[in-house]
Amino acid sequence: MPVDPTGAAGSATPNVAAYLATLDTADWWRHAVFYQIYPKSFADGNGDGIGDLIGARERLDHLVELGVDAIWLSPFYKSPMADGGYDVADPTDVDPMFGTLADFDALVEAAHARGIKVTVDIVPNHFSDQHAWFQQALAAAPGSPERNRFIFLDGRGPDGSQPPNNWPSMFGGPAWTRVPDGQWYLHIFAPEQPDVNWDNPEIPAEFERVLRFWLERGADGFRVDVAHSMAKPAGLPDMDLEDYVPHTQLDVDHRFDNDGVHEHLRMFRRVIDSYPNRMAVGEAWVPDDKRLAMYVRGDELHLTFNFRLVEADWSALDLRKAIDGSLSAMAEVGAPCTWVLSNHDVVRHTTRYGGGALGRSRGRAAALLQLALPGAAYVYNGDELGLENVELPDDVLQDPTWERSGHTDRGRDGERVPMPWAGNEPPFGFGSSDSSWLPMPSEWAGMTVAAEQLDPNSTLSLYENALRLRRELTDLQGSGLTWLDSPEDCLVFRRGTAFTLMLNAGDTPVELPAGEVLLSSADLIGGELPGNSAAWLRGTDRVA
Ligand code: GLC
Q1: What distance in Å separates the CA atoms of residue 199 and residue 195, rounded to the nearest whole number?
Q2: Between the N and C ends of the chain, which has fewer C-beta atoms within 10 Å?
Q3: Could you give the 3-state DSSP secondary structure of residue 320?
Q4: pTM above the 0.85 mark?
Q5: Does the annotation count 283 as an active-site position?
Q6: Total structural domains in the chain?
Q7: Domain assignment present for 518
Q8: What is the torsional sign of CA 16, 21, 22, 28?
Q9: Coil, strand, or helix at residue 416?
C-alpha cells in the first residue's frame, strides 16, 4: 500500500522526511529501529487477559508516537503454548488465542498506513509435537519417510533404553524423549518441540512455503529463531558437559553454529530477495564476533542480533569492547550491527544493571548509547517505559524451564509481564479483563504509557526524544563512529561531523565535552554529567 512518508509521523522536518523516504528503499533495515511485540504481553483486544493481534493493532499509535520504524511480532501461530508459542503447530495459521489471519491482515494494513513495517518470527529448528507432521511421524514406523522429517534414533545400551547421546535440553532434563516403539526423538528445547531434520529436502521446501506465505500477506521481514541451530554436528557426538550451564546458549555448545546452517540461510535469502524491500534478522547466540558476522555475509541474513550489549557488564571498558568487537567484525562483511538491550529471553536491562533507581538511570543511559550507535536497534516492549523484571509467585510461572529444572530456574516469565497502559491499578488498561495472564505489580502505577506520556522526564519521553533526533540528525544516519578521549569510566564517541555521545558509567559527575546538549538521560549537575547517565551533544570541537 502506498504510504505518505510524512503523514503519520506528524510535522516532519526536511531531514525526517528524507529519513522516512529511505524506509522504502531496499536497505531500510540497515538503520531501522524495530520494536519487539511479545503478543501475549503487549495489549489485549478481546478481554481475556492475554494480548493478541487486535490489541496490537489498537495500540499502534503508541508506536507512531514513540517513532519506531518496524515491529517484530514474536510467534502468534497455532500452538499449544508449551514454550510461549515457539512450539508451532501450524506456521501458516494464527492461534485463536491471538485472533485470526484476518486480524493479522488488518494489523499489517494499519501498520503500513502509519509507515510502520511488520516483521514476523519464523521458527525453523523445531515444530510443536502437535504439528501434523510430528503426529504422522509418531504413527509411522522407525525408518519411515514421516520419521525422517525429525531426528529419530535408536537408543544406546543393549536394549536401547539409553538416549542416543548425552545432550541436555536447553530447558533442563535430557534432549531426547522415547516413544512407545523404543526410538528416541531429539528436542534441543522442550519435549513438545521436536527438532526437524534439515538434511531432508522436505524441510527447506516447507520453510520456503512458510516464508512465501507471510511475504505474500505483506510481511516486511522475519526474525529467524535460533538461526544457528538448523545444522547438527555430524554423527551427533556426545557433549563435554563439564562446563555446561543449563538454559544458556552463551557457552561454546557444539550443537549450534555448525557450518551447515549457512546453506539453509542462503535459501532464506534467495526467497526473501525475490520480494522487494524485505529482510531477515537472525537470532544466533554465537560468542565469536567473526563467526557471528558469517551470518550476514552478502547472500545470507540481512541482520543478526548483536547480544554483546546484553552480555556486557556496566563498565565503560566492557561496553567499549562489546561495541568495538561487533563493529569491526560486521564491517568486514559490510553488514550493520543490530543492537539489543533486552528481549523476551533475557532479564530486562534495567534489572541487570542493578534495578531500582540505579538500574533505571543506567537503563536510560544504555538506551541513549544503543540508539546512538550505527546500525539497527531493537527495542523490547516495555523498554521504553523503563520496566524491570517482576518477581512472580511460583504458582503463576509458565516458562517450561521452571518445571524442567525441578523448580531451580524460574525461567523467563519475569521479563514477559504485560505492558501497563493506563490507570492506577493492575492490569493498567492492558485489556478490558480485570486480570492479566501474568500479574502486574501495583508499583507500575507511575510507569504506565499514559503516566509517562505526561511526564517530560519519563523514560518514555526520553525514548521519544531520542528516536526523533535519530531521524532528524543526518550525523546519526551514517555508519561511522570515532572514539574520542574520555575521562575514566566514560565513553565518548563522535558520529558524523558534530554528533557526540558521552556515557558516564562511573558514579561521579564528569565534565561534558564542548557543545550543545541535545538530550540527556539525567539532569546535569552544575553543567556536569552525573554518574550512570549519558548525553547527546552537538559538538563544537573538530575531530582530527
Ligand atoms: C529462541 C526464542 C525463545 C525460545 C527458543 C526455542 O531462543 O527466543 O523464546 O524458547 O528459541 O524456540
Answers
A1: 12
A2: C
A3: helix
A4: yes
A5: yes
A6: 2
A7: no
A8: positive
A9: coil
pLDDT along the chain (544 residues), means of 10: 36 73 84 98 98 98 98 98 98 98 98 97 98 98 98 97 96 95 97 98 98 98 97 95 68 87 98 97 94 97 97 97 96 96 98 98 98 98 98 96 91 97 98 97 98 98 98 92 96 96 98 95 95 94 52
Secondary structure (3-state) at 231: coil
Please report whether residue 205 resides in a domain. Answer: yes
- Find out whether 12 and 23 touch, Cβ atoms under 8 Å: no
Identified catalytic residue from 69, 87, 283, 383: 283
Q: Is 171's C-beta closer than 6 angstroms to any atom of ligand 1? A: no
Does 29 lie in the same domain as 118? Answer: yes
CA distance 341 to 362: 12
Residue 155 is part of which domain span? Answer: 127-197
Q: How many C-alpha atoms does 502 have within 13 Å on its Cβ side?
A: 32
Q: How far is the CA of 38 from the centre of ligand 1 (A)?
A: 12
94, containing H or E segment: strand 90-94
| Contact 225 CB / ligand 1 (< 6 Å) | yes
Give the phi and the psi of residue 415 in degrees, each rounded to 5: -100, 5
Strand partners, 281: 223, 303
CA 206–ligand 1 middle distance (angstroms): 20
Identity (one letter) of the amino acid at 117?
K
In short, whether 226's Cβ falls inside 6 Å of ligand 1 is yes
Which of ligand 1's atoms lies nearest the C-alpha of 86?
12
Contact 172, 404 (CB under 8 A): yes
Our answer on whether the CB atom of 296 is closer than 6 Å to any ligand 1 atom is no
Q: How far is the CA of 226 from the centre of ligand 1 (A)?
A: 7
**Which letter does DSSP use for residue 208 in this model?**
H
The answer on 245 and 156 residing in a single domain is: no
**CA-based diameter of the chain, in Å?**
77
- 501 lies in a domain? no
H or E stretch covering 261: helix 261-273
| Identity at 382, one-letter amino acid code | G
CB atoms within 10 A of CB 401: 24
